[in-house]
Amino acid sequence: MTDKPTKRPRDAEATKARILSAAKKEFAKNGLGGARVDIIANQAKANKRMIYHYFGNKEDLFQTVLEEAYVDIRTAEQKLELEHLPPREALERLVRFTWDYYLRNPEFITLVNSENLHRARHLKKSEVIEVVSRRFVNMVGGLLDRGVEQGVFRPGIDPVQLNITIAAIGYYYLTNRFTGSILFQRDLMKDEALEERLAFNIETILRLVCVSR
């Protein structure tokens, strides 16, 4: 007679997932300094002791949330399968994805802002971030190499610099959407404004990378 499988491992994973989800919202809303573990516990339907058991202290929990956030976007980028597309089309898809991801995941931007306030002291300790970041840079580098080989892209473009530029032209627009709407006297978050911005982002990157005809 075999023993019935225990539910404890599954329950533990479900609890950890709830804690991470609640922590992501709390850290994104209030930053590391303002986030409260008791609120995270309440939202996760857990208790503080369980949080400390699974994740250590609040700093450790914040690092785990950050790692999860970066792994999520890097994993989604890998699923774009850019290597199967013509270089120009692949680059446009990457620019479009980055913009759409920021719009769908505003917590990612606020978490990154919070970590920058702390001079990336949590990411410096993370081996996970190093691995996923290297994989992404290699993917973009491979895309650029294919474009150069086919005579579509200019040679000598640094994939790290390109990634920073793609991120920046979307990141700045969204983090400054409130002040920008006042300064430029237009609603930067209206549907037509967002579509216009995406088109501008794509054109900007393609003009930067593509060989002039």
TrEMBL record:
What domain of life is recorded for the organism?
Answer: Bacteria
Protein name as catalogued? TetR family transcriptional regulator
Taxonomic lineage from the root: Bacteria, Pseudomonadati, Pseudomonadota, Alphaproteobacteria, Rhodobacterales
Q: Write down the species.
A: Albidovulum marisflavi
Residue ranges forming the DNA-binding region read 36-55
Q: Mind telling me which PROSITE patterns this protein's record contains?
A: HTH_TETR_2
| Keyword Nucleotidyltransferase attached | no
Protein keywords: DNA-binding
Domain HTH tetR-type residue range list: 13-73
